[in-house]
Specification:
Layout lengths: L1 H35 L1 E5 L14 E5 L10 E5 L5 E8 L4 E5 L2 E4 L2 E2 L20 E2 L4 E5 L9 H4 L2 E2 L3 E5 L29 H6 L8 H15 L1
Antiparallel strand pairs: 1-2, 2-11, 3-4, 3-11, 4-9, 5-6, 5-8, 6-7, 9-10
Helix pairs in contact: 1-4
């Protein structure tokens, strides 16, 4: 009887050790992935609402080199903060704001994200503004609250950390991401949409609390 009890104990202990070993391997793999290939960032504020929500974690491609209009990027603002914004103009483009509308090369901005008026924010940024080589003009989708190039002017591309990964929708507007914790279904497991599942299926085998804690810790070291 004693041997059976110890046998069960040993099996449980081996199971725990096996799980912890797998968790460590996954943690190392995630760290390397987030360090060199994919970046993890949290949306701060509502400047990209409704495309992205406050406190929503998003992944971005660190290896992206060429950026286009419509791309959503993680960019370092002159204030020193990293924010998520949308590129609306690239080098050579001329930006103008007239009657609440953004004009790029005399063509009114179009896209599903254009739902609000875009008004000037600073007298130091004058229009029309031609974007210099190696720079971009970025705006938040929630134009009424976003602090962006209307305040700081054109941004150097060297300030961009990466482009948010897209689910294949036109213009790179659709971004795949994990839902914010408050939006996840009950049940104790991390829920993700199909795109995340295809790329990060290993996250789905871990308890939600472990994944969130792991991501938070790794993101601190990657900032």
């Amino acid at each position: 009887m004693a041997r059976k009890k110890f046998g069960k104990f040993d099996d449980k202990k081996l199971g725990i050790l096996r799980f912890e070993k797998e968790f460590i391997v996954i943690a190392i793999a995630v760290f390397l992935l987030l360090k060199f290939v994919v970046g993890l960032s949290w949306v701060s504020g509502n400047s990209m609402y409704p495309t992205l929500k406050n406190n929503q974690p998003v992944f971005y491609n660190r290896l992206a080199k060429n950026y286009e209009r419509g791309d959503i990027v993680s960019i370092r603002m002159p204030s020193g903060e990293y924010m998520v914004k949308r590129i609306v103009a690239v080098a050579g483009d001329t930006v103008d704001l007239r009657d609440g509308t953004v004009y790029i090369n005399d063509v009114a901005e179009s896209g599903d994200w254009v739902t609000q008026a875009s008004e000037p924010q600073s007298v130091t940024v004058s229009y029309p503004l031609t974007i210099s080589e190696g720079h971009v003009f970025v705006l938040g989708d929630n134009r009424e609250v976003s602090i962006d190039s209307r305040t700081y002017g054109q941004m150097a591309m060297t300030q961009i950390r990466g482009r948010l990964m897209a689910d294949g929708s036109a213009g790179g507007a659709g971004c795949w991401r994990m839902e914010a914790p408050e939006a996840q279904a009950d049940g104790g497991w991390l829920m993700a949409d199909g795109s995340v599942g295809r790329r990060f299926q290993f996250l789905l085998i871990l308890p939600r609390g472990r994944v969130e804690g792991l991501m938070q810790i790794i993101s601190i070291f990657l900032k």
